[in-house]
Amino acid sequence: VVQRERAEAAGWELARQRQHQPLRLEAKPSFANLILWKVVYQTEHRYSVDAVRILGDSKVYPGESVAILDIARDLPWLVAMGAFTIGVFHVLWNVSVLLIGAAAATVVQCNAPIFVTFMAWIVFKEALTGRKIAAIALSVAGTVLISGILGMSTAQLSGLGVITALASAIFYGSFSLFGKKLTGDYDPWTILLYVF
Description:
This protein is of the alpha+beta class and 196 residues long. It is 60% helix and 15% strand. It has a four-stranded antiparallel beta sheet with strand order 1-2-3-4, covered by helices on one side. α3 (102-109) packs parallel to α6 (159-183).
């Protein structure tokens, strides 16, 4: 109890030095250790985590802070990233493998950056530069050459299979676009935790 109180006092002092006004603060011992404590406090928009050594003179090891998830604003984007992009992508990619084979489905799906470029141009108004257009043209040419589409008979390659593979690429590429919306506010690990 005394050690926890010392750790909490050090946490309050650290918050005061940072000019933070914690809404709540807790100190917990680190794993099987009553000497090093983690101090977590919440401000209006962030959580801060630091370590405090409680042996002799207290010593603070500054940690990091992360944004608090704004459920009303960002949960729909996280659900879209997880269920909509990754979930639908996996279903479409597996169906396309069944319809046109793993090699062709994979080569077509690897064109996701093309769709990301076009969707970013439409959604985020990113510039469609000459370099991007050249990269898209080279990617399409490479896909046609590597996949062997030109040499396949129509019996080997179904239109539905190609459309399904293209759709899987679109959904796979959408993951990047949804992520772009959230990366300015949250740490990438926070986003991955909620998405998966």
